[in-house]
Write a structure and sequence with these properties.
Strand content: 15-25%
Distance between the termini: 15 Å
Bound molecules: iron/sulfur cluster
Strand order of the largest sheet: 1-2
Helix content: under 10%
Structural class: mainly beta
Length: 53
């Protein structure tokens, strides 16, 4: 697993988390919004999240 230092992340429950450091291991992630128009940080999330297997 490689650490992508361009994508910081503290979601340790995700299978793509680098674990030893607070980064993602993917080369690319999709950021999504939950509402038609995003007005707060809570409206956005990582769409590449996958639960630990
Ligand atoms: S896929 Fe998203 S939630 Fe999972 S480690 Fe990467 S940035 Fe974090």
């Amino acid at each position: 697993m490689t650490t992508n230092r361009s994508i910081g992340c503290n979601v340790i429950e995700c299978k793509h988390h680098a674990k030893t450091e607070s980064y993602c291991s993917l080369n690319h992630i999709d950021v999504v919004k939950h509402t038609g128009t995003a007005t707060t940080v809570e409206c956005t999330d990582c769409g590449s999240f996958e639960p630990q297997g």
